[in-house]
Amino acid sequence: MHVFVRPTQKFLACQVCSGLTFARREIKMTTTGMTFIDLDWLNRSADGVICVRCGFVHTFMGDAHQWVDPAAVDPKDLPPDPLGPGSADERRTSD
Ligand SMILES: [Zn+2]
Fold first, then answer.
1. 55 C-alpha vs ligand 1 centroid, how far in Å?
2. How far is the CA of 85 from the centre of ligand 1 (A)?
């Protein structure tokens, strides 16, 4: 799956390897005492966005990101992926 980030209006690229495909995993955010200082939302589950290429886990809370089926994404809208399939060929032909 791809992940669209609303504040930047861009698809997420992995912070480590610039990968564009991610798996999803719920992450429990367990904190103590937050209820008393009105930070109860910190106790909700976070959305773990795991890069399928390098395994780096990006952790999101709230609703600023959105999972998108790759079939629904125009590849032109994705950030450049220096390690992705096709990008090496594209570089060769444009050089
Ligand atoms: Zn990665």
1. 6
2. 14
